[in-house]
Amino acid sequence: MIAFGEPCSAGKHGASLSVDAARLRTLAAVAPVRDSEFVSLANALGRVCAGGAVSQVNLPPFDNAAMDGYAIRTADLSGSGPWNLAVSGRVAAGDAGGHPLLPGHATRILTGAPVPTGADAVVMQERVFCEGAVIRLDHRPPPGTNVRREGEDCPAFSQPVTAGQCLTAPRLALLAGCGMADLRVWRRLRVAMFSTGNELQEPGLPLGPGQIYNSNRVMLRALLTVPWIALTDLGILRDDASAIRATIREAAATLDVVISSGGVSAGEEDHILDALRRENATLDVLKVAIRPGKPLTVGRVGAALYIGLPGNPYATAVTFAQIARPALRRAAGLTETPDMMIAGVAGFAYARTPSRREYIPVTWEKRDGFGRPILIRLGVGASASLSPLAQARGVAALDDDLTQISPGTPLTVEPLLE
Ligand code: AMP
Ligand code: MG
Predict the structure, then answer these.
(1) How many whole angstroms from 262 Cα to the centroid of ligand 1?
(2) Ligand 2: centre distance to CA 295 (Å)
(3) Is the beta carbon of 292 within 6 A of some atom in ligand 1?
(4) What DSSP assignment string belongs to 48-111?
(5) Residues measured by CB to lie within 5 Å of ligand 2, the ion
(6) What is the pLDDT of residue 14?
(7) Nearest to 116 by CA among 64, 59, 78, 46
(8) Distance, CA 312 to ligand 1 centroid (Å)?
(9) Pick from 24, 368, 379, 418: most CB atoms within 10 A?
(10) How confident is the model at residue 398 (pLDDT cuts 50, 70, 90)?
(11) Whose CA is nearest to atom 15 of ligand 1?
(12) Are 4 and 278 in contact (CB under 8 A)?
């Protein structure tokens, strides 16, 4: 934590933090949401479990057949086979138990049906010979064969999902299987976003002289449109120190996180840092050894986290993925970290000056003998370019000290989700 005014190792004129150090400092500045609310399963997809969801029933609720076949008592198969068993009774899924299994008999049973009292195995119908109301068995199945035991999937009084887990489709299915109709989730993270720049115009409107279209707004909106965020889009702010300051103050007073793009460099039209200073922000990150995206500001205004992303769209995208997304996930109460890295190899040559970790857009069509994608580099590293990332299948991370990349050099890639 660096209070403004103190000597600052991450200051605009000081040394840059490594990407990992910047991420750690940002995560350390995060206070996760602690208020919770009940939601029904139908509304829980993608929300964050707040804990305390205790199942009241066993899953499965009773011993049941995993196959269509015959329920038997394995102890009836004494001596050497084959064995003949008379079939008495039939039980299908949804039937209420049926009669206990008579000694030396079998019960016709269908998948999902309750295993009759006294039976301890289900023999697949494909593995018996039927002769009228008698089945002949030439193998002895071990006890428990094709029986799904009561509670083996999820026992009563356990927690099917725990605090911090994202409610994915399989987890919702598990909760439903346990008969739980609703559960407590952390309230949505309240996030505000805005773009800065006098040059910005919204798509669909005519461009004036010197104007460009606002790419970051729609990109950040898309990146922030997740079930665990309640987003407030504050649009475009002009490069006006007092307007930016007022917006930051108001947003930080009521919301958890404020994210902006642009205005974090050291030019005289970059007002974010000055606004944060005047709002008595605690500044955690000011400069990061990342390419693209070196100017990046993370701090706290009151209880709110502030993340000032750079303005160039590719830099915005990279710093969002590397710094903002992990911080937002933590702030929302998520405790699991997705591991999105895959191993690839360069299919290109690139000599670089070591200093910053560089993220380059890549795509691939072929794989090497180990199944690793052979990466094709897209674009020429211009942080303002939109096309390379739009065409990319992933982003390759080039470590700070990697100077020479040749065809075959191993590289890690973060695949893009869509
Ligand atoms: P800044 O950090 O404000 O100096 O912006 C750096 C570069 O990114 C400038 O060329 C800006 O015009 C451009 N830029 C800033 N914000 C956006 C945006 N929302 N969409 C597209 N380009 C932007
Ligand atoms: Mg600007």
Answers:
(1) 5
(2) 12
(3) no
(4) BB-S-----S-BSSS-EESSSEEEE-GGG--SSS-EEEEEEEEE-TT----SPPPTTEEEEE-T
(5) 197, 262-263, 311
(6) 66
(7) 64
(8) 5
(9) 379
(10) very high
(11) 311
(12) no
Q: How far separated are the first and last CA of the chain, in Å rounded? A: 36
CB under 8 Å to 13, separation ≥6 — which residues?
none
**Residue whose CA is at the smallest distance from ligand 1 atom 6:** 311
**Given the CA of residue 239, which atom of ligand 1 is nearest to it?**
3
Q: Cα separation of 171 and 46, whole Å?
A: 10
Q: Is 58 in the pocket of ligand 1 (CB under 6 A)?
A: no
Tell me how far apart the alpha carbons of residues 279 and 248 are, in angstroms, rounded to a whole number.
8
**284 sits in which H/E element:** strand 282-287
Q: Write the single-letter amino acid at 238.
A: R
Structure tokens given for 398: 């080039």
The answer to whether 89 touches 137, Cβ cutoff 8 Å, is no
In this structure, are residues 24 and 307 in contact, taking their beta carbons and an 8 Å threshold? no
Q: Give the pair of three-digit tokens for residue 365.
A: 């069509």
pLDDT given for residue 392 in this prediction: 95
pLDDT-derived band at 2, boundaries 50, 70, 90: very low
pLDDT of residue 163: 98
83: which residues sit within 8 A by CB, 6+ positions away?
76, 77, 136, 137
Q: Give ∠ CA 254-237-320 in degrees, rounded to 5.
A: 70
Q: How many residues are present in the chain?
A: 418
CB of 253 closer than 8 Å to CB of 242: no
Torsion of CA 352, 357, 362, 365, to 10 degrees: 90
pTM over 0.85: yes
**Nearest ligand to the C-alpha atom of residue 261:** 1
Buried/exposed 152-173: b ≥16 CB within 10 Å, e otherwise: eebeeeebbbebbbbbeeebbe
Q: How far apart are CA 127 and CA 136, in angstroms?
A: 9
pLDDT of amino acid 113: 97
For ligand 1, whether the C-beta of 263 sits within 6 Å is yes
Decide: 211 in ligand 1 pocket, CB within 6 A. Answer: no
